[in-house]
Hints:
- The complex is a heterodimer of chains A (about 120) and B (about 110).
- Chain A is about 0% helix and about 55% strand.
- Chain A has about 120 residues and is mainly β.
- In chain A, the strands form three sheets. In chain A, strands 2, 4, 5, 9, 12 and 13 form a six-stranded mixed beta sheet that branches.
- In chain A, strand 6 (about 55-60) and strand 7 form a beta hairpin.
- The relative contact order of chain A is 0.34.
- The model of chain A is unreliable at about 95-100 (pLDDT under 50).
- Chain B is mainly β.
- Chain B has no helices and eleven strands.
- In chain B, strand 4 and strand 5 (about 40-50) form a beta hairpin.
- The radius of gyration of chain B is 13 Å and the shape is globular.
- The interface of A and B includes residues 43, 46, 90 and 106 of A.
Amino acid sequence: QKEVEQNSGPLSVPEGAIASLNCTYSDRGSQSFFWYRQYSGKSPELIMFIYSNGDKEDGRFTAQLNKASQYVSLLIRDSQPSDSATYLCAVNIGLRRYGGSQGNLIFGKGTKLSVKP
Amino acid sequence: KAGVTQTPRYLIKTRGQQVTLSCSPISGHRSVSWYQQTPGQGLQFLFEYFSETQRNKGNFPGRFSGRQFSNSRSEMNVSTLELGDSALYLCASSLEAYEQYFGPGTRLTVT
Lengths: 117, 111
């Protein structure tokens, strides 16, 4: 059974702080990793993806991947109240082929982040 | 570019009925995946279509089915609805890579 685990939270941080969200996965064959943000009542929005070990930065967001430890994290710098949402970690073990992805995304249950003004 | 669109946005059905949900992917995207989201189980994969062929299927009963048309639009059908089928049904489209972009979802309530 392929699993993705996240701390459900809630994780509460003050405005301007760094929020650190963590995720572990069980399948060593996993090849790509995603972070989605989901506001209450809305659909998930893709905010970061990472395929290789190491760090990937995009604005205030940094995704970190350690395949040996089967661990992926998301750091949000200078957290804002508008970052308050549920963050979903997703893993895909499918093969990458021309014309479309293959495989399916396995999601964690999400971590609820609350940024206090 | 327009995003993923799903219709209808809200639906109320009675147990035993069937329902069809529609998804139009981002222009140029050929892969469409469907997911079910519930408070208890979270987001779960239903199936994925690419070029009118089902490539992957999740662990859902045969009452859940889907198809994809030549223009990449996709539909999913749930027959003999049960109360437990009440959920947010999400469609996601993808181009070449793994990145999947979700539509707004269809909120299905079964009474």
